[in-house]
Design goal:
It is built from no helices and eight strands. By secondary structure, it is mostly beta strands. It has a four-stranded antiparallel beta sheet with strand order 1-2-3-6, with no helix packed on it. Strands 5-4-7-8 form a four-stranded antiparallel beta sheet, with no helix packed on it. The N terminus is likely disordered.
């Protein structure tokens, strides 16, 4: 069964870590949620919702990602982003998936954003399961 034939609704358990200097308060981390997959003639696209839990806006600048199935990496890539996420709001990011894989997938990566003029990176991970 291809990824495109699955409904995806697993929340991305965003395990985020910001490289913050000692003594600085760690900001709330953005969260991600898989919304679905769209099959195009050349590739599949995974729709990911990014939620900004802070009251201040943030600008998404880059997403480095890898998809894995049954412990093996099946696709990797990097997206240059230029998306503003207002405080307490969400945006949808499309991530290309260049392979068809059986079973569940895991999305792992690093999301880079500018928050209050400071560049921060967050480790993100999510299980993509069929329903």
């Amino acid at each position: 069964m291809s990824v495109s034939s699955r409904l995806l609704a697993i929340a991305l358990g965003a395990v985020l870590s910001a490289g913050v200097a000692a003594g600085c308060k760690t900001a709330e981390s953005p969260s991600l949620r898989v919304l679905g997959v769209h099959d195009t003639p050349r590739r599949e696209v995974v729709f990911v919702q990014v939620t900004n839990p802070r009251s201040h806006p943030m600008r998404l600048t880059k997403l480095e990602y890898a998809f894995a199935s049954q412990g093996a990496t099946v696709s990797t890539g990097q997206l240059a982003l230029s998306r503003d996420v207002p405080g307490n709001s969400t945006v949808v990011v499309e991530i290309p998936l260049d392979v068809d894989s059986e079973g569940g997938l895991t999305l792992q990566g690093k999301l880079t954003a500018v928050i209050d003029e400071i560049v921060k990176s967050f480790a993100v991970t999510a299980q993509i399961a069929e329903h």
